[in-house]
Design goal:
Largest sheet: 4 strands, mixed
Radius of gyration: 15 Å
Structural class: alpha/beta
Distance between the termini: 27 Å
Strand order of the largest sheet: 1-2-4-3
Number of helices: 5
Length: 150
């Protein structure tokens, strides 16, 4: 598995091991082999994510994370060769605000947002209540496995 980092360099260095563990746990839970998976992660600020949110989702406001999947679901993943799963764009400024709001560490918040985004890359959504419950359950299971419970 290869995680390709962009944006805030220090952030990537500090969290790369934990993000790799989070990606491995998420992929394993979904039955996706890790060896040929590539995921791009970019750390941005409020302004950059607002622009991306407006451009790609027609929502002109700040958000915490955006996911750009290359596949609709795990059913569409190639059976062999490289799997470029997609792109994760993480807003560090919003993560810091949420850290204060929820009362846990910044690293925990960033890893949670990363897991949330990975699940989107794997086809999860939360538009309907049943989808939201399924996705939340997956997030909690993975975060507990990582030793980062709520």
């Amino acid at each position: 598995m290869e995680l390709i980092f962009g944006g805030e360099e220090g952030r990537a260095e500090n969290l790369s091991d934990l993000m790799e563990k989070a990606a491995a746990a998420t992929l394993a839970r979904e039955g996706v082999p890790t060896e040929d998976v590539e995921i791009s992660i970019t750390f941005v600020d409020d302004e950059e994510i607002r622009e991306l949110n407006a451009q790609y989702r027609d929502i002109d406001k700040v958000t915490d994370v955006l996911s750009f999947p290359q596949f609709e679901s795990t059913d569409d993943l190639p059976e062999e060769g490289e799997i470029i799963l997609g792109d994760v764009v993480l807003n560090v400024e919003q993560a810091k605000r949420q850290t204060e709001e929820y009362g846990h560490s910044e690293d925990r918040e960033i890893i949670y947002l990363f897991v949330h985004s990975l699940l989107h890359l794997l086809g999860y959504d939360h538009m309907e209540e049943d989808e939201r419950a399924e996705m939340r359950g997956a997030e909690e299971e993975i975060m507990n496995e990582l030793g980062l419970p709520r």
